[in-house]
Amino acid sequence: MLPTSTYHGLGMQVQYTYAYLGDDDGNSYVVERKYIGSMTGGLYIMCDEFGALSLRPETSQSARGELRRFSSPELRRWSEPVLQRTREGVAPRDERPLTVELTDTSVLWDEGDLLHLEGVPGALGVQGYAPMPTDPWFYSEYPCRVSGTVLGRPCRGIMVVETGYWRHGVEPKEAKFFTELEHSFNAFGNLLDDGTMQWGTLVRGSRGMCVAAVVEDLDGVGTVVLSNNELDCRYRIEESGQIHYAQQESAGQVWEYRSDKTGHMDDFEASRWDGYGSMAGITTLRGDPRTVEFGYGWFEYFRDRIPADKRITD
């Protein structure tokens, strides 16, 4: 996670912290914050309590702009939004504070009454690398078990630290992965009834681009469930253009994505382009006897890029 590190000759271009959360009333939340260098664009707060996974108005109260950043092998921190340190009347008066701290043994994400999460990192993360000659792509995700509050409501779920590496100076939505190659990207997590945290990334794109990686954590011990560079995806595309079901197969495992009936990310999707679609739901391994106590998955897609023979018609 150090911004000075390079992998396959690539430097860090973007980081995200995001989380899938559930409250005691059965509402689901997705929260996401993006960092490029010491800058952040604010916190997306999405909740499904009104029939779709829509942005909450409190999103506008989140801190944005330049942050104080600290990085060492032991600690990664974003804090003290710069404009909030200036005299009264410069920053919006209702803008909330922000502190994110990551260590080997703990995570903290605090944005005042908007969001407060604490927890522990998982034993393993996942990563994928596509060594394309002109537009190489390297991505990593690191899951954490968390609990706390969102909009003042008690919640629990999975927080993720996500890092992208590619050509310097290219913003994520300018990269060839987003503009040309991606068919679908399913990042998902489950808290299972035996105490296991499960995290996975299933990516399918054109020109053979595939990532199939799933890990589990039980009492601090990590297990690799799937690590493969082949992934066959088949999608059921509704008349609306939304994808509510996908069958994703790799190394003899079948991972089924099913959307939540309130999971369509109306506002988030509207803020993107190039035919981008985005749903929330749950992804599980076919035949796994364990019960999912809490599960959530982000399923984004570009339906117009999906070949006809990969569309489920029955």
Describe the structure.
The relative contact order is 0.15. The chain has two helices and 23 strands. The chain has one domain (6-310): AttH-like fold. Helices cover 4% and strands 57% of the residues. It is globular, with a radius of gyration of 19 Å. With 314 residues, the protein is mainly beta. It has helices at 176-181, 266-270, and strands at residues 6-7, 10-23, 28-36, 39-47, 54-55, 65-66, 68-71, 76-79, 99-102, 107-110, 115-121, 126-130, 137-150, 153-166, 182-192, 197-205, 210-218, 221-228, 232-237, 243-250, 253-264, 276-285, 292-302. The strands form two sheets. Strands 1, 2, 3, 4, 5, 6, 7, 8, 9, 10, 11, 12, 13 and 14 form a 14-stranded antiparallel beta sheet that branches. The protein has a nine-stranded antiparallel beta sheet with strand order 18-17-16-15-23-22-21-20-19.
In short:
By secondary structure, the protein is mostly beta strands. Helix content is 4%, strand content 57%. A hairpin with a 4-residue loop joins β7 and β8.
SSE order, one letter for each helix or strand: EEEEEEEEEEEEEEHEEEEEEEHEE
**Beta strand %:** over 45%
- The first-to-last residue Cα distance is 44 Å
Number of strands: 23
CATH architecture identity: Beta Barrel
Q: Major beta sheet, specifics?
A: 14 strands, antiparallel
CA radius of gyration: 19 Å
